[in-house]
Design goal:
mainly alpha
Length: 115
């Protein structure tokens, strides 16, 4: 206990005399760093920057693929809608012929029953 009190007293005397160095906080760096090399390229040396650039390229590629697929779907829908108008008339003609054959068959049955 006496040692602690003597250290506190010695520190107080040193502070009063101004012999204490300034205390640097734990959030400050005591080293002075030289400036970065002007040839430093973060796209070459930094893994995060490399991954970020690759991700952006991938997203751009996927966006282009998505747009290409949308255009292809639109083209197919246009082709389908333009082709669907032609078969509708064919389907109407086909159903007309089927109806005529059915009526012909009914008429034939009616005449057979009468004979």
């Amino acid at each position: 206990m006496a040692a602690i009190i003597s250290q506190m007293a010695a520190n107080k005397r040193a502070r009063e005399k101004g012999q204490f160095r300034t205390i640097i906080g734990s959030d400050k760096c005591v080293y002075t760093l030289p400036p970065f090399d002007p040839c430093f390229d973060p796209m070459v040396h930094n893994k995060y920057m490399k991954a970020l650039a690759q991700r952006q390229m991938y997203e751009a590629h996927m966006e282009a693929n998505r747009r290409r697929e949308e255009l292809e779907l639109l083209r197919l829908q246009r082709e389908k809608s333009s082709k669907s108008t032609v078969p509708k008339t064919f389907m109407n003609n086909q159903s007309l012929w089927k109806t005529l054959f059915v009526f012909r068959g009914l008429i034939m049955l009616k005449f057979r029953n009468l004979l």
